[in-house]
Structures are given as structure tokens and as C-alpha cells.
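Shall we go through a protein fold together, starting from nothing but its sequence? Please make up or recall a protein chain and show it to me in full. Go ahead whenever you are ready, and we will take it from there.
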Amino acid sequence: MLQLAAVHHIAIICSDYEASKRFYTEVLGFSVLGEYYRAERQSYKLDLALNGAYLIELFSFPNPPKRPSRPESAGLRHLAFAVTNLDVAITDLNVKGVVTEPVRVDQHTGRRFTFFADPDDLPLELYEL
């Protein structure tokens, strides 16, 4: 049987590289591990870490096609981040101009969560531990 060790990274293609770079670093607090411009592809690749762990590869490409994200499209549904205090996290996002959905409660765990979106409307979730 295949023995997976962990999720290595999540790759995200954005339509506005500078806006997404600001969002993931200044709004969500990811740190930059490396930034590379690949001239042959007219593409940036930004390696981002959360709490020191490599997590996201942010890519730019010329004119990427839109991907349907709602309602409940097939494929990746959302990316979820764990937080210890949902109310504080929501307030921090709202102060930075990020709109969050009303808080929901997971019917199986009793934990609270909310959704918001990145600059390309990629659905993101905050899940309270």
C-alpha cells in the first residue's frame, strides 16, 4: 500500500500576481521562502510558508482561464486553515477588508468555521481548533 508521509504543498494559479502575493503574505501572514521569475513561461513562482512549513506555491501565468468555484463545482472545494480563536481571526480579516461569511458550526465536531475568498475567489476556510 502507498505510504504517503504528508501533504507537501498546494499549488495556486492566480490572475493578478501582485494582488495575490499581498493577500497571502500581508493578509494571511505567509512568509516568502523564494520568488522566481521563469521568463520562458512568463510566469512567477512564489514559495510560501506558514509557521516555517512550506505550504503554498503561488503561480502566475498570462491569461489563466477562470475556474468555476461555486456552487459546489466538482474538484477542489476549498482550502482550510486552522485557527485557535475564530472571532479574533475574523476580526483581523475584516479589518484588512476581507469579507467573511456568517460563522457556521460543524454538525459532527461542534467546531466553528467560516469561509472567505482570495483575490481570485478561491474559497478559503478558517476552522477553529
Q: What stands out?
A: The two ends are 31 Å apart (CA to CA).
